[in-house]
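Subject: Predicted fold for E3 ubiquitin-protein ligase NRDP1, 319 residues

User T.R. writes:
Posting the sequence so we have a shared reference for the thread.
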Amino acid sequence: MGYEINRFQGEVDEELICPICSAVLEDPLQAPECEHVFCKACISQWVARQPTCPVDRQTLTSAQLTQVPRILRNLLARLMINCDNAQYGCTRVLNLDSLSIHLEECEHNPKRPVLCEQGCALVIPQDELKDHNCIKELRTLITKQQQKMNEYQLEFHELRYFILEQRREMQLLKDFMRALKTSNPSMRAIADAMDRDAQDREVVRWSGSLQRARVTRWGGMISTPDDALQRMIKRTLTEMGCPIHILDDLMENCHECRWPPGLCSLETRQNNRRQYENYVCKRVPGKQAVLVLHCDNQHMGEDMMIEPGLVMIFAHGVE
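User M.O. replies:
I've generated the structure tokens; pasting them so everyone works from the same file.
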């Protein structure tokens, strides 16, 4: 619905009046063929009931409505209008295009949000402040929060039951596949491929949960870490949720004797130094070490990458 005409200062051109509500246009839209203009709310309700122009009855749908020309928007914007809160004491007269901004800040707006200074610190409409009861409002708030908590707990229990059912079905499927592998040799290869695929997906999911790392000093790489250092890194990987089927392989791949040809000696590492920056490295929290997983580095050549990946330990230089 449009703005009441008696709120405006001076005469309002009839071209700025909505034919439906007979008020000044609000959020105007235009019919494309006949170019008649209406309030957005008015014409939307009209065409929802009957898809015709209210003035000349030409066919009209909501999808055909267009924005009005800029000159019409400018004419509307220049109209001088009284504040919505004039009845509450506001005497401001301002351009129509400034009205919405003013209403948000108008001190006479009865619905302006204000902070309760009586102790509860709730934000409430200004016209409700005089009847506001802090204890009552806080009790209502606590009740609503308790209801939400109950809903969350119910949802949690439902999800937990669903997960348990999924785990049970997965275990049944694993048992079934195991039985097939034992009884039917032709199924063994299929089952093994499925197991490998599931393990690969698990590694990709785990890698996606890890933060990227940046190595600033590749020269600080420790190519022959001692047993104590390896045990410390392995314990950290376990705490990070490293898939159990790759944990031991990763730890074996932290020593240069297991590294690919491009890394297996000091000479080859120096020759391939420029390729280091192409590695996608993942952080090992709290340690000067990075994970270089095969699933993240398939762009690297076989001479620089092995499965399931590498653990690189440094004296310094990991960010």
